[in-house]
Amino acid sequence: MFDPVEKLAAFTRFPSVSADPAFQSGMEGARDFIASLLADSGFTVEVVPTPLHPIVLAKRDGDPTWPHVIIYGHYDVQPPDPLNLWQTAPFEPAVRDGRMYGRGAADNKGPLMVHLAAAVKVLRENPDLPLRITFLVEGEEEIGSPSFLPFLQERRRELAADFVLLSDTGSPNAEQIVITTGLRGIVAGEIEVIGPRSDLHSGVHGGAVYNPIQALAELCAGLHGPDGRVNVPGFYDAVLGVEDWEREELSRLGVSKETYRAFLGVNGFFKNDGYSPFELVRFQPTLEFNGIFGGYQGEGSKTVIPSRAGAKFSCRLVPDQDPIVIVELLEKTLRERCPPEVELRLRFGHRGAPYLVVPPGRSNTPADQPPTLARAFATAERAVARQFGKPPLFLREGGSVPIIADFKRELGLDSLMIGLFLPEDNLHAPNESFHLGVMAKGIEVSASILRSVAGAD
Amino acid sequence: MFDPVEKLAAFTRFPSVSADPAFQSGMEGARDFIASLLADSGFTVEVVPTPLHPIVLAKRDGDPTWPHVIIYGHYDVQPPDPLNLWQTAPFEPAVRDGRMYGRGAADNKGPLMVHLAAAVKVLRENPDLPLRITFLVEGEEEIGSPSFLPFLQERRRELAADFVLLSDTGSPNAEQIVITTGLRGIVAGEIEVIGPRSDLHSGVHGGAVYNPIQALAELCAGLHGPDGRVNVPGFYDAVLGVEDWEREELSRLGVSKETYRAFLGVNGFFKNDGYSPFELVRFQPTLEFNGIFGGYQGEGSKTVIPSRAGAKFSCRLVPDQDPIVIVELLEKTLRERCPPEVELRLRFGHRGAPYLVVPPGRSNTPADQPPTLARAFATAERAVARQFGKPPLFLREGGSVPIIADFKRELGLDSLMIGLFLPEDNLHAPNESFHLGVMAKGIEVSASILRSVAGAD
Q1: Which of A118, A237, A339, B244 is most buried, by CB atoms within 10 Å?
Q2: Class of the CATH domain delimited by B4-183+355-453
Q3: CATH architecture, domain B185-239+285-352
């Protein structure tokens, strides 16, 4: 008997923190656990080495004409700090009030267990189900999935499939499930402005040199126009319009601006250029400053002209912005604007493409999608309505999960992302937990999808 | 026999670091030393308590009709760190190549000893010299002279004098002495911009809020106009014009722009609005950013929208800008410009007024100055020419010595500032030293001034 709650507790017990080498044995334990569980459930398991944390690949093969679903998850978790804020120890899972507490219970061990339990269930019901299933469980999601793209490229042939099914996104509450239809891409960078060869006395030399903080402030301030839009020529050229159905879905989210404003703790929202804040975070690209630094930062004052100053920023990109093009535009614009009296150094860090899937039947300009995907979306919509009492909302999300765009670009695969996290799950924070009611309903939804894709509903 | 070099070595041996309580006994040692030396030289010494480091007040009284010169100096020094960069220990004074090495040898023990040796010399030559001299030697100069103004106010009556004589400013080289005719004032402040109640995920919420770093960058960038001038309405209203004689003196400085540019290590000078860089640092006010901070500053990237960001700045003021008015203008301008979506916090720190003395006979619009001051300036000019081979340049300086403005405002006293520091003296840096040739010549110049003021030249 496969008890998903008991399996989740056992899985959560392994401290599989990918970011910290001290947790190596926890990583191994979680990996062995999920590999064994998949093998015991009838899958052919391969543990694929990577430069860092191996990927668990588990297949139910079959006739090549059968549909093929890839189920994605990750066995690594965020660090548990600060430990003193946990009510029970992060790696001693405990059930309280219908929730399983523990680091990774929600992100992503619980949702992964949902789909595994669903697969076990449908295959027990129908051992001859005409469906190929591949579980792909990585161990580097919390550190940016550095081994994932090379893995996809290497295994391109055997990962040919109909679509990807996963739950690594959120929903607003336990009654309203969101199926995520889009993710923003990302480009991270750093601007550094270098002035005099060393810090200078601001009395003796003040007025003679271009203060690097001033040049930096001018460059940063110039990156947005008075309308709040990113002021980089060409930045919006590839941005797709928002379709009416997307705005309609969003209008059903049921959160007021005032509630959101109070949650953020701000006096008002950013300049909106005609978009609501809910639309801005989902449909529009951004350039946000993440950090700024330079000169004296201690108590009181120190009257220096600093030698250098810098700022970190990241852009969130929307379909069809290309991270490579955006980097080129930023570089060109900043170099053109930097005053010649100072030196500009630019560094660009990680980048990921945006992603968008149009749920079949929603758009006026239907995409060319495999019928299996259309069937999976339709089944998901009905099954969510049946299990949770309300149909799901199909919404884009503001965050970035670059592997979803990688699946699309490298393998041509769209993703069906069923949001099983709730705001109270405390992802990446102390007292992370997973809602066991959502878990049980999620298993039924996932089972319905698998059956339907196999033509067995 | 008063050997000034030997006395300077003994004085420099005391580690009189005012900023660090660990050096308390060094402070006491230096204070006792200079007090005893003044007493042994015939002065009536009083050690005046302050909340921190006492002031040494030493008088040669006399007939109230005699001229009265105040000689200012300080017995405290900068911290000696980093110790490993000193060729010989900072508090074990050593003579090499005609220089006395040691922390405080130049700033300000050597120059103070110059004037003390000069006073001893002229009084030995003429014990009946009709001149009142008051030495005023403080111990808090390197920490901003917090006790100085209250002391001046308290002792206003007995400090009624003709002028102040001091050497706490610099000259470009051992042949070209500068007599400093002006100092810039200062206003230090900090801008803080507060946005959301905590750091936010830049994917989930990016686009909805006014990023505090962006608001800060806009505020900072807006504080200068495209011409490089400070863009605060009213900022320049009280700025006095520069007289022709000042530009002429400056043109004789003999440093090329190219030399200065290479020294600063910049590609070019700041926007000049018609002023040369040498003029900008002396004749024009500034607003310089001293530090900036906010959000993530570590390696790589962290995609947060920070809750707050801040910048430290300081303005250098020129005659007749009033620090109190400038603070009001800055506060008003920043509050008006800050977008309402974020909260602005402003803090203002230390402030000091600018200072200007017109050397008698130079200006077309002569000031109302005591004849003693005129005589002192004229004698200084001749004595410097005789001792150093070239007449001094009368120049304003870009730095701030707020006590000089305090002397003027509280007691109506102008200052005769004879620059005895050279660039190679390494003030505030490792291997500080004082040029013993400059010292010997300086004693003769000071002696000439004292004699002349007493009518005995």
Answers
A1: A118
A2: alpha beta
A3: 2-Layer Sandwich (3.30)
